[in-house]
Amino acid sequence: MVFDPHSIRQEFPILQQPAYEHELVYLDNAATTQKPIFVLERLLGYYQTTNANVHRGAHFLSDQATSQFERARETVARFINASEKGQVIWSKGTTEAINMVAYGIEHLLDPEDEILISSLEHHANLVPWQQLAFRTGARLRVIPFTSDGLWQPEYANYFSDRTKVVACTQVSNAIGVQLPIQEVIHHAKQVNAITLIDGAQAVAHYSIDVSQLDCDFYVFSGHKMYGPTGIGVLYGKTDALDSLLPSQTGGEMVLHVTYQATEFNILPYRLEAGTPNIEGAIGLAAACEYLQKHDREAILQWEQFLVQRVHSLLENRTDIEIYSPRDNSTLVSLSVKTAHIMDLNNYLDSKGIAVRGGSHCAHPLMAQLGVSGTLRASFACYNTIEEAEHFANTLLEAAELLSED
Amino acid sequence: MEHLPYQNIKEQLQSCRSKEETFKALVTLSKTLIRLTPEDKIDSNLVKGCETAVWLIIDRTNNIPQFKADSDAKLMRGILVTILSLIEGRSTHEIQSMDLSSELAQLNLGSYLTQSRTNGVLSILKKIAQT
Ligand SMILES: Cc1ncc(COP(=O)(O)O)c(C=O)c1O
Q1: pLDDT tier at A228, thresholds 50, 70, 90
Q2: How far apart are CA B22 and CA B13, in angstroms?
Q3: Is B1 part of a structural domain of the chain?
Q4: Cα dihedral angle (A220, A225, A230, A236), rounded to 10 degrees?
Q5: A113, A140, A358, A393 — which has fewest CB within 10 A?
Q6: For A135, which DSSP code?
Q7: Touching check for A403 and chain B: CB below 8 Å?
Q8: Rounded Cα gap, residues A337 and A343, in angstroms
């Protein structure tokens, strides 16, 4: 392995502190990543030198803030290879972006229509569609992906003239598997369905090219890709964004208002009511720049290598079941037959190891796997081989301790 | 196994110097819990608001209520042993006049209690304090 996480690690101040009396081992990166100094300094710098409201009024700071804010949009557009910066709409995060679409297309749906999702979705890419189905009388259908995430020819049968929307995650947050989004988008296009890809778990690890994917919408959160919380992106093709009704109205998104009517602004502003999260946008752009400064392929290979290392330490154990793939995954999701997830979670925590135990906001998927939850260790660029091994060995220790009655 | 008296448990837990020691102490305590039979582990006995399943059965036919509790997680069983030893043998009136959560707060359980949003210790205490 050519990649050395030790130098990158120095750029994340939070990782230098202890957890209880142990070294902090942060393996909850799928929930949120830590932030590098590069991003933190940009945030501080914004408030120290630039802070003002954007798109309003002529003064020195406002002009600077507006141009930084709009440059951030350009940076993010380039980061995902969108053809125009106006195709990047700011949101609070993935959840809000999906809701913007689910409310925005409500007027396009009829009771005969079908909304298609995969069986590996986070609640964020499930509940908004289910509720949209309730509101419109449309039918929510679920493609029954197996946990290997592989495309099966019979899935094609789920696509028909009735299919109006297809929403699918690129990477499962619960079991780390990549979904065949190319096939999903391809079949959706054959029936002229609107496509949305949930990139929340993908952006930190993979280069995203929305133009090549050719989906109508692509959504993600800043906080899972080394950026700040409270900012995310709704990317949309221009005509797809044009078809959305604004789910929020108010200032900033209007051109002209009378008591009788309102003329909405153009994209992207039409979908961004109110004062936006300016610092968030600037911080997210910094995170994009940060990722692009590094060899992303090398980081991805490193993260996948850590997962393989954990597998090799655990996979010969008959009491441990691993739900995530050994290869091409940046997280490990597992359970131990003789121990409760929360006990394992707490034991690891008591040793300074941060992982996530639970249902990962994916109740239907947990039911499909026949478990109430899993323990998930998810890796990022700053994790070391020692941390991966320490996690696996401590898990074995916990399994030992918890199995005796 | 017999429950330890609450004072013993309190001393044990208070002598723990780290989260790790508390973890091990709770696991040890968990072994003294009298487990529920499968017939008692029914949904209507589940305490709502717990990430780990917790069953709590309170028999209030006598002045001194009888408690039976269980969980599928060991740490929670250790916490249940602690809570039960604190209230067992007391009348409903006595229990209601106790400040259970500030008593538990003295036990070094730190994050095990502050996670109550998910582990539901608060919901357990609420159910115990109901008449
Ligand atoms: C696959 C997936 N989709 C959606 C979300 C929701 O993201 P957010 O909470 O940032 O809106 C998450 C976050 O856990 C996720 O992993």
Answers
A1: very high
A2: 6
A3: no
A4: -20
A5: A393
A6: H
A7: no
A8: 12
Kindly report the number of other CB atoms within 10 A of residue B116's CB atom: 17
pLDDT digits (tens, 9 = 90+) for A171-190: 999 999 999 999 999 999 99
Estimate to the nearest angstrom the gap between the alpha carbon of A169 and the chain centroid: 9
Say if CB B36 and CB B67 are below 8 A apart: no
Q: What is the mean pLDDT of residues B74-80?
A: 93
Residue A57's pLDDT band (boundaries 50, 70, 90)? confident
Q: Is B112 helix (H, G, I), strand (E, B) or coil?
A: helix
**Domain range enclosing B101:** 6-129
The pLDDT of A283-299, averaged and rounded, is 97
List b or e across A220-259, with b for residues whose CB sees 16 or more CB atoms inside 10 angstroms. Answer: bbbbbbbbbbbbbbbbbbeebbebbebeeeeebbbeeeee
pLDDT of residue A240 exceeding 80, the answer is yes
Q: Does residue B97 fall inside a structural domain?
A: yes
Domain count, chain B: 1
Residue whose CA lies nearest to ligand 1 atom number 9: A95
pLDDT at A330 over 90: yes
Judge whether B37 lies within some domain: yes
The pLDDT-based confidence of A404 (bands split at 50, 70, 90) is: confident
The arithmetic mean of pLDDT across residues A327-331, rounded, is: 97
Q: Residue A159: name the closest of A187, A118, A129, A194 by CA.
A: A187
Could you give the count of Cα atoms lying within 13 Å of A38 in the half-sphere of its Cβ? Answer: 18
Task: Dig out the tokens for A75 from the structure.
Answer: 């940076």
Average pLDDT over residues A243-250: 96
Q: Any residues with Cβ below 6 Å from ligand 1, and which?
A: A 93-95, 122, 124-125, 169, 173, 198, 200-201, 221
pLDDT digits (tens, 9 = 90+) for A343-365: 999 999 999 999 999 999 999 99
What is the CATH number for B121? 3.90.1010.10
Q: CA–CA distance from A112 to each of A93, A109, A160, A163, A164 (Å)?
A: 31, 8, 11, 9, 9
Whether residue B75 and residue A346 make contact (CB cut-off 8 A), yes or no, is yes
In the numeric block, the tokens 């608060």 are attached to B122
B81 Rama class: left (phi>0) / alpha (psi -120 to 50) / beta: alpha
Structure tokens at A152: 């099966």
Is the pLDDT assigned to residue B120 strictly greater than 80? no
> Which chain B residues have any C-beta within 8 angstroms of a chain A C-beta?
18-20, 22-24, 27, 31, 51-52, 72-76, 111-112, 118-119
Q: How far apart are CA B52 and CA A98, in angstroms?
A: 30
- Distance of alpha carbon A311 from alpha carbon A269, whole angstroms: 47
- SS3 state of residue A187: helix
